[in-house]
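Q: How would the structure tokens look for this protein?
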Amino acid sequence: MSIEDVSGVTGEACRIAPGRRADTTWVRAGGLRRIARKRSLLRRLRKHRRSSALGVLIGVLLCISPSLPALELAPVARADESQYIEFYTPPDPLPPGKPGDLIRTEPSRLVLEPSGQLGAFVGTGTRIMYRGTDATGKPVAVTGTYIEPDVPWPGNGPRPLLAYAAAPYGMGEQCAPSRLFNQGIHASLQTGFDLMINLEEGFIATMLARGFAIMVTDGVGMGVHGPQSPQFLNRIAGGTALIDGARAAMKLPGTSLDPHGPVAFWGWLSGGFDVADALFGEEALKRVDFDQFVGVFFEPEPDVAEHVVDAGLK
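A: Here is the predicted structure in token form.
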């Protein structure tokens, strides 16, 4: 009996005797069963390949694991400020005294950038901690930097002291201006993206080269190691910290300052508000006991010209 080929739904030939009518339903059902069997076989093959690959990977890891360091969780991003903790931790309780009294001092490295080879401050830095008060009037320790110029004062009379209030650099202890003077650029990239630049060092270095003695306060709560937070833009804390820092600088031994010499204030952004608070704040005005208060510059707003007061510092 001759045989003829009839194509099924799977593309494979179905052999049917001539003269017999092909049962298309039977052909289609058989084809679907063959498709299902092939798909099941393919799934088993893919699963087997994945299992084999996973096994090879585990074997490789087991072979090299003795040479790998122990895996650890990523550390919390923080700066390494351990060198500063001893100085910046205030004594508890604070020693007796009044606002502006020195608590402790130590030499302070001054650099424009971390290597200290690209330019220099023409002066000698001293880190200071002095008594102040916070926004509630509570006695607190405040830190800052005094810079004694290496050059003589070219003007008339005794050398003036420029009490400087910096802009806010950040909330962390490492953002304090007195710490940034030691580094120029602070970076702790090993534990996260922690980058801080001393934005005002160029101006301070320029005024120092012109013969001004400089005192830069960190402000209340900034830099000091403890649970407190910086009291930015506080009309009481900002002004009193600036005035008390100037008073503390006048009490430093071995400087070229005259205890009765001229004092001026300078600040911008939040530092500008601190200067304004020192000039007009009720609590701050009670502490202004300088014999010669000779000038002020403050810029709490972008428009500089409206906030310049020239009192003859020439």
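The radius of gyration is 38 Å.

Residues 1-22, 60-71, 303-314 have pLDDT under 50 and may be disordered.

Upvote if useful.
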